Amino acid sequence: MAEAHPVGFQWVVEAKRRGATIVHVDPRFTRTSALADVHVPIRAGSDIAFLGGLINYVLEHEGYFRDYVVAYTNAASVIDENFRDTEDLDGLFSGYDPEKGHYDPITWRYEAPEDRNPDEQRRLEELESQEEGNERAGESHVAAQSESHGSGGAAVPWKGRRDETLQHPRCVFQILKRHYARYTPEMVQEVCGIAPEDLRRVAEALIGNSGRERTSAFCYAVGWTQHSTGAQMIRTASILQLLLGNIGRPGGGIMALRGHASIQGSTDIPTLFNILPGYLPMPHANQHQSLEEWVRDDEGKAGFWGNVRSYSVSLLKAYWGDRATPENDFCFDYLPRLTGDHSSYTTVRAQIEGRSKGYFIVGENPAVGSANGKMQRLGLANLDWLVVRDLQMIESATFWKDGPEIETGELVTEEIGTEVFFLPAASHVEKAGSFTQTQRMLQWRDKAVDPPGDAKSELDFYYHLGVRIREKLRGSTDEMDRPLLDLAWDYPTDEKGEVDGQAVLREINGTGPDGTALSSYTELKADGSTSCGCWIYCGVYADEVNQARRRKPHWEQDQVAAEWGWVWPANRRILYNRASAAPDGTPWSERKAYVWWDAEQGKWTGKDVPDFVADRPPDFVPEEGAKGPDAIGGQDPFVMQTDGKGWLYAPVGLADGPMPTHYEPAESPMHNPLYGEQSNPTRRRLEIASNPLNPSFIDVFPYVFTTYRLTEHHTAGGMSRTLPYLTELQPEPFCEVSPRLAAERGLEHGGWATIVTGRTAIEARVLVTDRLRSLRVGDRVIEQVGLPYHWGGNGISRGDSPNDLVNVTMDPNVYIQDKVGTCDIRPGRRPRGRALTAYVADYRRRAGMDSSGEPDQSEGGIRE
What sign does the dihedral 218-220-223-227 (CA atoms) show? Predict the structure, then answer.
């Protein structure tokens, strides 16, 4: 965190100054480790085993917050009798289809209630139609629809039976205990290389700092997300925090440290293929032929997600304005449809195969920043046209003349037909607008200076692109053009023709029947009388004021600082904060008082905006058949979940199982010590010649490599390798290795090393350091190579890109790539030209890899 998020890390240092214990878990000893109380080195990619060990310790030593767990989680829920765990199936859950590589989750569900109401009976009959279940599960898996539950838990058909004694053998609590029983301190050492005493020390610190009087927080970044089990790594931390009572309470929670100022914003209002603003699911061509079919699965379910029709209709009204009417399904037919996997890496494959002809690259540099850079460049070289918008002439714009494949002869400039349009972009100080940072906070940035020359902001570029396209289509009678021509594209512009960003933010906020800005998403209607570009952002322009632009200093506010920016939803600083009070509505303790029930006023009150129905008393029991927010019980704090509980076990919604399970990375030097199933059985792979997979546990590729960031450079380097001051601080690429590995391979500190995988070989300066430890794992020592990934062929500081080494194997929920792999490392500089391809080919031959680059078909997992 100190390396990649130094400004935010100041508050960690402040917390330590006030007595907090800081634990840093990382393969490397970094600037964060230097200021932490405890550094725990870990084998890259083994985090679930470590976190699972903590869960086992908490359960075995009864360190969990029992009152919280019983009342606020699904620990008491009883699971279907047909469910089978990884303990029963040696690393698989019930419902796995080995041919398709995905799960049918029907057996993961809560046990059906004996006295079912008509809705529950209908849903049971639908679920038990196995043919339908298999088909929809497969379509949803391929289309990454797990991610569409981002702001509302996947709908469960019923709340089911509960045993609040936690003794029923099929209740979640007992299943969880059995699942993690094998994650002992000794097993964690065998998997992660973490000494048992270090695991116990961390576990005791967490238990001692959790409960009624105290809370602990987790912070994570790409070290958890960029794995073939990435979503489940974060799920494991969520389970641990729920057991300890650290969700929905001040000082608790899990914070995702984003890599840019608005990565959070780019998922809230997404640049993703499978969701719409506010995490509404993108319609599927085979499942959603009408608005009714689109919202049917979620509409009316318990919790605020049950109001999905209001959110969806208001979004359609924001897109198409007066053209969206009840008679035409509010222009629902204008929305694009999913037909399968349209993610980034699948698109690159389509480019290579000639099925994708045009591409926009805006504010990213996939030739350097994405996994398997060679595959990216081969795709770019097979386009008809490419538009690149950036501050500098990045490698993704110049691949056709100076990319690594030009040197090796794999690409020839004169034979590349891609027409590249480079359009200069405005930097963050040269444009005004909002960004949404890691704690869901929208902040407004004013423009400091005008952009130089032809440089334009994204808002200005896309607005005028839309104007030009609509002008070209004017008068068209083709129905295919109606979605563009009917757009509400009437944003105010100034004398320079630039769009007023605040007008766009107001549209995102939403307006009511009288045209005034709305104050909360609870005001949205399903009848078309309201318009809202993103329902979770409704309120950011409340009272016709840009709430994101508020900058009242913290010394003039209380600890919540509600007048600094605006946090979605409803300026609520802590989500699910009803959980900060006990079931009876009183604070768990005075020290941790945050939100509580005021019986005299008959409403929830406190230091933050209560994340609950304001006047709903703690003893409220919903009527039978209640829907939406009316179905939220007075002791159900997780108001977006259909059962109102925090999920220790996910009965639906995840592609790779209801509980996190340790699997080895797709490339690993060792067998999975926990299960016979080696790697995530539902992982997604691209089986093409340019994306070969190293065989695991072979001597040809004996070491683990992982990538990371430096403070002095930013992501793919376009904003930092071009600046002389930052280049002076980190002038050239390097690799970190332990003294033991240096001695084993004859590497000299400050000299050159060649790092090689089945994809390519790169060179880097050698940094021999104790910061990267040799790890004792079982009966062997695992060595890791650390590679900062910021370099490419352009700029002042130049060098090989470590991401060229990475194989594309993806998490099955969100399709993010694994950044861990296996490699060899040798002293000296890499070969040049065609000698490089021959060098890599020899490694592949010795590893027994198919000459076409296809991985072994026996490994399981989803394939394209």
Answer: positive
Quick one: tokens of 841?
């080919």
CA 803, CA 806: separation in Å to the nearest integer?
A: 5
Coarse DSSP helix, strand, coil percentages of the chain, rounded to the nearest 5 percent: 35, 15, 50
pLDDT digits (tens, 9 = 90+) for 313-338: 999 999 999 999 999 999 999 999 99
Helix 373-380 and helix 395-402, axial crossing angle in degrees, nearest 10: 80
836: Cβ–Cβ under 8 A, 6 or more apart, which residues?
Answer: 407, 408, 760, 761, 830
Residue 12: burial class (beta carbons within 10 Å; 0-12, 13-18, 19+) = buried
pLDDT in tens, 239-296: 999 999 999 999 999 999 887 778 888 889 998 899 999 999 999 999 899 999 999 8
Q: What are the DSSP E strand ranges found in 93-137? A: 96-97, 102-103
User: Which structure tokens are listed for 498?
Assistant: 């630039």
d(CA 489, CA 492): 10
Nearest CA among 270, 335, 317 for reference residue 511: 317
Cα gap 573→391, rounded to integer Å: 34
The rounded distance, in Å, linking the Cα atoms of 168 and 182 is: 20
Dihedral sign for Cα atoms in the order 63, 68, 70, 75: negative
Backbone torsions φ then ψ of 499, nearest 5 degrees: -75, 145
Q: How far apart are alpha carbons 787 and 244 in whole angstroms?
A: 35
d(CA 237, CA 254): 8
Residue 683 pLDDT grade (very low, low, confident, very high; cuts 50, 70, 90): very high
Residue 330 carries which DSSP code?
G
Distance CA(537)–CA(689), nearest Å, equals: 44
d(CA 546, CA 549): 6
Alpha carbon 688 to chain centroid distance?
25
What pairing do the DSSP bridges indicate for beta strands 433-436 and 419-424? unpaired
Strand boundaries in 714-837, DSSP class E: 734-737, 752-756, 761-768, 775-777, 780-782, 784-788, 809-810, 820-827
CA atoms of 209 and 246, how far apart (whole Å):
10
Q: What is the pLDDT of residues 169-196, one digit of tens each?
A: 999 999 999 999 999 999 999 999 999 9
Here the tokens at position 337 are 């449809």
Q: Where are the alpha helices (DSSP H) in 181-297?
A: 185-192, 196-208, 222-225, 230-244, 265-268, 291-296
The pTM score is: 0.94
- List the structure tokens of 826: 């040798």
The bridge status of strand 358-362 relative to strand 385-390 is: parallel
Instruction: List the beta bridge partners of residue 25.
Output: 40
* pLDDT confidence band for 223 (50 / 70 / 90): confident
Token pair recorded at residue 40: 């725990």
